[in-house]
DNA sequence: GATGAGCGG
């Protein structure tokens, strides 16, 4: 009988024939209670004769070999948990289905001033991940979707509006980062988040696009009317083809207005474009 | 005729 597969690691390095497969398999006997182990194997010697080799060795006892003193000590501990009714020293391994609750010391809603009078179960659980940074409402909405964003006070604790030289002279804002929108000391500017949100919403819907109109094409078409903050062409996820409509967002509403007036009804790629203000996105 | 994906501290 020839072995069907020989792993390369088992191949003989010299060029002599490997006839080991003709030999009886290696036998291991023991170890017995005295730790005596016997290994019986067969080999061909240099003359090509079959020889039997018996190796006898003593193995150290398991506890000495593998267990530390502390580990041996632990075996005499009383059982606990699901194993509480087991005898000491028995059943060294046991799978437990006991539920372990982990403490989260800094979980949202744990701060004293946050919790006072709160009967909101969401606030009690400590499992709420969604906490609006703008209004502080928990489990309701993300900061970017805060319905109270426009009402909330600007965080003047973080950013002092520099009034050109007065603050610099007193050194109050020395080294503090001031975002570009807050530079220049004008108090007339409306709050930054407010403006940015409006810019995102100057959304123009373009329909009756040919199937091979892509976003770069749309940008090229609308770019002459003003700064475009986003172009989007709806793609059918199944087929990967255009669904024939898209959106273009303008930084300023006036530019969007002009684009609508000029491009609505415009012939593009053998089709008549329809261009108008987009309805606010559903959800 | 037609109204978008993903992103979480």
UniProtKB/TrEMBL annotation:
Annotated segments matching region Disordered: 157-204
Domain of life: Eukaryota
InterPro entries, alphabetized: eIF3_g (IPR017334), eIF3g_N (IPR024675), eIF3G_RRM (IPR034240), Nucleotide-bd_a/b_plait_sf (IPR012677), RBD_domain_sf (IPR035979), RRM_dom (IPR000504)
Record carries keyword Iron: no
Family: Belongs to the eIF-3 subunit G family.
One GO BP: formation of cytoplasmic translation initiation complex
Keywords: Cytoplasm, Initiation factor, Protein biosynthesis, RNA-binding
Function, in words: RNA-binding component of the eukaryotic translation initiation factor 3 (eIF-3) complex, which is involved in protein synthesis of a specialized repertoire of mRNAs and, together with other initiation factors, stimulates binding of mRNA and methionyl-tRNAi to the 40S ribosome. The eIF-3 complex specifically targets and initiates translation of a subset of mRNAs involved in cell proliferation. This subunit can bind 18S rRNA.
Domain RRM: 202-280
Record note on quaternary structure: Component of the eukaryotic translation initiation factor 3 (eIF-3) complex.
Bias kind Basic and acidic residues: ranges: 194-203
Compartments in which it is found: Cytoplasm
GO molecular function terms attached to this record: RNA binding; translation initiation factor activity
A Gene Ontology cellular-component term: eukaryotic translation initiation factor 3 complex
Predominant cellular place of this UniProt entry's protein: cytoplasm
Record protein name field: Eukaryotic translation initiation factor 3 subunit G
């Amino acid at each position: 009988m020839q072995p069907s597969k020989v792993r390369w690691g088992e191949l003989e390095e010299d060029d002599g024939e490997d006839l080991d497969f003709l030999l009886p398999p290696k036998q291991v006997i023991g170890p017995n209670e005295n730790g005596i182990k016997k290994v019986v194997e067969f080999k061909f010697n240099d003359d090509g004769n079959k020889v039997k080799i018996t190796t006898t060795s003593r193995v150290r006892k398991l506890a000495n070999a593998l267990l530390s003193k502390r580990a041996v000590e632990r075996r005499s501990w009383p059982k606990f948990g699901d194993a509480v009714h087991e005898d000491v020293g028995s059943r060294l391994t046991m799978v437990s289905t006991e539920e372990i609750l982990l403490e989260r010391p800094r979980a949202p809603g744990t701060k004293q001033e946050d919790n006072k009078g709160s009967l909101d179960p969401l606030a009690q659980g400590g499992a709420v991940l969604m906490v609006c940074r703008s209004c502080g409402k928990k489990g309701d909405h993300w900061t970017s979707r805060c319905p109270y964003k426009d009402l909330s006070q600007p965080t003047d604790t973080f950013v002092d509006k520099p009034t050109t030289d007065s603050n610099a002279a007193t050194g109050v804002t020395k080294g503090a980062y001031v975002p570009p929108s807050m530079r220049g000391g004008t108090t007339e500017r409306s709050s930054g988040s407010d403006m940015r949100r409006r810019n995102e919403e100057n959304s123009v819907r373009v329909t009756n696009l040919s199937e091979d109109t892509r976003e770069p094409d749309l940008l090229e078409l609308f770019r002459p009317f003003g700064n475009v903050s986003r172009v989007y062409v709806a793609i059918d996820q199944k087929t990967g083809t255009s669904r024939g409509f898209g959106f273009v967002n303008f930084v300023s509403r006036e530019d969007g207005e002009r684009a609508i007036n000029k491009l609505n009804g415009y012939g593009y790629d053998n089709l008549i474009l329809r261009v108008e203000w987009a309805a606010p996105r559903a959800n």
